[in-house]
Each structure stands twice: as C-alpha cells, then as structure tokens.
Amino acid sequence: MDLATLEIFRTVADEGSVTRAARRLGRVQSNVTTRVQQLEEELGAPLFARDGKGMALTPAGERFLDYAQRLLALAQEARQVMHPDTPQGSLRVGSMESTAASRLPGPLAAYRRRWPQVTLRLRTAPSRQLMQAVQDRELDCALLALPQAAGPDVATQLPALGLDGVVVCRESLVLLLPPEHPPVASLAEVQVRTLVAFESGCSYRILAEDGLAAPAGTGVPRLPVALDIHEVGSYHAMVACVAAGGCAGVLPRSLLALLREPPDLREVPLAEVDTLLVWRAGYATPALSALREALSDLAGPAKHLSQAVAKPRRGRAG
User: What is the superkingdom listed in this entry's lineage (predicted)?
Assistant: First the structure.
C-alpha cells in the first residue's frame, strides 16, 4: 500500500470504471486492475463490487476511501510545506455556484499567472456539502456562506468542527419576484407559494425559507400554506423560472449584474451575507496562503473569524 496505489484506488472510486480511471491517470488498464487487486489482497477485503456497468465501492471500500483521502491529502500537504516560499502542487477549491461565477474568474486567473506550478481544481456545490467535503479532506478549502439567520451563529462553531476561515466578501441577497407581482413593502406581502432554489444544503435557500416562513418572534407563518420548493441546477434556470411567473428565487445582486439582458423582475432586499474561505484547522500550505492573498482584494483586507463575522442584516423590502 503506497501513495501511487492509493491514488489509483481513489481515481477508480471517483470514475466508477477502470477504463476511465486508466485514461485519467495515463496508465494502461491492466496496470490499474492489477494494482487494485493487489490492494484488496493486502487489505483482505473486496473494495469494489464489479458488474458489467462498472465498479461500485463496497462498504469496506467506502470506509477505506476515507482513509485514502486523508493519507493522500496529508502527503500533498507535507510535500508543499517543504518549500514554504514557493506555492506548488495542487489545491482543491470548493465554491458556491454564485461565487464561482461572479467573484472567482479574475482572482483565479491572476493566481494562475503568478503561480503556474500550482494545479487548481475547482468544484461547485451548496455550502453544507462544501463544508463537509473540507472536513472529509475531499477539498482543501471552500468558499461558502453560513445560514446564521436560521439558527445559532454557525461561525462560532467552526473551531469545534475542526475548521478555520476568513471573510472574503459580502453579498447583498435579493428575493426575485415575477414582473406581474404587486409591489411589496415587506416580505409578509409576498404572494408566491413556490421558491425555486438549489438542492438542500444551500445557505441562500435556508435564508429565503426562513424569511418567507417565520417572522422573527411571532411564530406565525408568513405564507398561509406550506412553501413549495422547486429545485434547479443553475442560477440561469432560477431566473428563467421566476420570469415565467408563479415562483420566487433568491440570489446575490452581484450575479444579476453579470446578465447581459436582465429580465424585468421585482427585487426585494433580503439580507447581507458574508462569503467565507474555510479550511481545516492547522492546514497551512503556501498554495492556500497564495489563494488567500489573491482573494483579499474582493472586499478589502480579509477579516479573520476570531475578530468577528457580521450576521446577515434583513433589508427593508420594497
């Protein structure tokens, strides 16, 4: 069991196919098959269930994958800290879809120009899934939002979760309503019954559900019926659904600014929410430090979570 074998195992697990894994690794298929079989023999347990459709992890394989991820991440970190003045190796970055679209293209392009020896791997997902991926060492860091308005201040829980982070920018969230929707003076006057949103785990979705369903301190639902959730996979689809009528959506104002021809939709201020760059506590590599520097210009000097993380402020609807 060496690092090369662990990388082969992880790649087969990711691809679900020896053929695709071999292509991705630049190895012959027979070599990948042999290394996996040797690893299974050494561990004394089958790691994959094989059928005509591909390779699926067995329960033992799923357990071992967690250890393989941690060992490979630790090895990568060890290589990088041996050269503290030169960012190199790989950096696996997670991001919310909106942040990747509206905030990251410039900083990541500048990062690549300055540190071409670093391989950046970007993955998008909702905030909750991103945080879990950082904890599980599937990602080295992630840009996410914390749904503080939905419960206790989650930022104070990061150390207990084995995480650390900095605030990199603040987003102004707006609730989008169809153009024919009557003007509203407060969220209580929103008439739509469907919220178009990303899958469960999205902090912006949690804030929208909280704002539409439970006025602070009253316990009385804002809407007379339960809020229906229509899940989509992109912000473009979200905007299109709102424009079609009958539903509302929440997204950062910075994302609306990217649309070449924004549709004529009503915008209701919802909250001011911080975007955080989060990583595992104790994880410190030159590549991560360089990324923090590249992101520091998004909204002035980055604030460390030990200083303060401002809670979302409810804006006046109009």
Answer: Bacteria
